[in-house]
Design brief:
It is a single chain. This protein is rod-shaped. Strands 1, 2, 3, 4 and 5 form a five-stranded antiparallel beta sheet that branches. A two-stranded antiparallel sheet has the order 6-7. By secondary structure, it is an alpha+beta fold. Helices cover 45% and strands 15% of the residues.
Length: 294
């Protein structure tokens, strides 16, 4: 079946197609309700070196001019510590119940980003705020534990604040796409199945009607044909049994025919008048001559 024939079948079964689309619309509404969107909150901080008053070096006088490789290492350490399982459990006790991730922003500047994701907007906002504040406190406490001077502590400066949440509909779109594929396949399959069933029923009804019409006709009676009188063939007379001489033996060679007759000797008549013919073994032996005695 080609594409045009398939379209004709779908057009004939437009009721089935409309019902299928109605079911898909209802299923889409159900998915939008059952699969809520996710909310995502992002925040980012940059690491700064401490500003030293009266210093002649530009990096120490302006923290934004003091970026170097050491700040990148500090950013990696801080991100790994914030993503540790122990820290996650501690922040959950403080109210950060949503999923979050602390990562390093690619670039020259040592920047850390906080991403909180939840199905509730308020939960995502609260988690991002708690994690962003805990990151700053964790960085400071790590330096204090190493007995670093207060004037030389590395600090964080917020770049983007966790003030609003963005709606993420990726899960809903994936669910809708799967439902759409399954719904279209089921609708087309149902249309073709109904078309096949209808066609078979129609063919069956046509066959039954043809059988009913043929049964209404009078039965055909075969008229017997008159017998044909054939003349009787004359009986062949039986050949009388003869005890005469055997028929001649004919030998054919090519187109010539040679008849050879075996000589027959007629014996003298007996007293009772019977005639004895020689057998096929050959002529009877001649009687021995009789001599007369004087």
């Amino acid at each position: 079946m080609d594409f045009v024939s398939a379209l004709k079948v779908l057009r004939r079964r437009w009721v089935t197609v409309l019902v299928g689309f109605g079911i898909m619309i209802a299923a889409g509404i159900g998915i939008m309700i059952a699969v809520p969107p996710t909310y995502q909150v992002k925040a980012s901080d940059v690491l700064l070196v401490p500003a030293q008053v009266g210093s002649s070096q530009a990096g120490q006088a302006n923290p934004y001019l003091g970026f170097g490789g050491s700040l990148g290492i500090v950013a990696q350490i801080t991100a790994r510590k914030m993503n540790d399982f122990t820290t996650i459990e501690q922040l959950k006790e403080q109210g950060a119940t949503a999923e979050y991730l602390v990562d390093i922003v690619p670039g020259e500047a040592p920047m850390l980003s906080v991403t909180a994701t939840s199905k509730r907007e308020s939960e995502a906002l609260k988690t991002a705020q708690i994690v962003e504040k805990a990151m700053t406190d964790n960085l400071r406490q790590s330096q204090v534990d190493l007995k670093a001077p207060q004037q030389f502590l590395i600090t964080t400066n917020p770049i983007t604040l966790p003030s609003h949440a963005e709606i993420q509909r990726g899960s809903q779109l994936r669910a809708l796409a799967g439902m759409l594929v399954v719904g279209l396949a089921a609708t087309v399959l149902a249309a073709f199945v109904i078309e096949s069933v209808k066609t078979r029923r129609k063919q069956r009804s046509l066959v039954e009607e043809s059988l009913v019409d043929s049964s209404d006709l009078p039965p055909v009676v075969d008229t017997p044909k008159p017998p044909v009188n054939t003349p009787a063939r004359p009986a062949t007379p039986a050949r009388p049994a003869t005890t005469g001489p055997p028929p001649p033996v004919v030998h054919k060679t090519g187109s010539e025919e040679t008849h050879r007759f075996r000589p027959v000797q007629v014996p003298a008549a007996a007293k009772n008048g019977d005639v004895q013919w020689p057998s096929e073994e050959g002529p009877a032996p001649a009687p021995a001559p009789q001599t007369r005695r004087e």
